[in-house]
Amino acid sequence: MLDIQDLSISFHKQPVLQHISFHLDGHECIYIHGINGSGKSTLFKLICDIIKPTSGTITKKNDLQIGALIENPGFLENETLAYNLQFLASLKNQYDSSYIESLCQQFQLDLHSSMKLKNFSVGMRQKAGIIQAIMENQELILLDEPTRGLDQTSIHTFCQLINQLHDKGHTIVIAAHDYLPDIHYTHIYRLEEGQLFLDEMD
Questions:
Q1: Quick check: 76 pLDDT over 90?
Q2: Which of 61, 162, 174, 194 is 20 to 30 A from 26, alpha carbon to alpha carbon?
Q3: Which sequence spans correspond to the domains of the chain?
Q4: What does pTM read for this prediction?
Q5: Model confidence over 97-133: pLDDT tens digits?
Q6: CA 8, CA 64: separation in Å to the nearest integer?
Q7: Which of helix, strand or coil describes residue 22?
Q8: What is the 3-state secondary structure (H, E, C) of 56-113?
């Protein structure tokens, strides 16, 4: 599904990631942890072709569908939640209204509200960001600090949803400070000093 070989990137001659190698066969649920500035968001941006590496290669299977929440989710601020989700899904003609409605209900968001995104709280925006990353049945889902701003009820909903998606065969990579023990991870990695290490699981 995804193969990263000897990947490095520097900004202003300062190395951020150094000689990263990482492989996903499919159907994994990965947790990557590391301090602020360790390169978690940068790794996701590289996988999504938002930025280019200084060296190394990223090989993805043909037509790999990736859903991603990276840093702060961006939306059309003067439009509603429904407009934003419909607009994003229409880019690939994959708008499943019943599934999106279900996701919004799980996260206690009103899909039919007239409220503009600019008036959403941090937690509401985060929920919308999670929904857009998974609403098109994407094979690979990348979630960067996904529980930022979420209350405990929403975190519980999020963990249940991730486990359900993994059980259905999706591959999920979560990069975050907070370890969520209710998620059934298959592997845990640590980003430290620009390098990626596989941690032992209890």
A1: yes
A2: 194
A3: 2-199
A4: 0.94
A5: 899 999 999 999 999 999 999 999 999 999 999 999 9
A6: 22
A7: strand
A8: EEEEECCCCCEEEECCCCCCCCCCEHHHHHHHHHHCCCCCCHHHHHHHHHHCCCCCCC
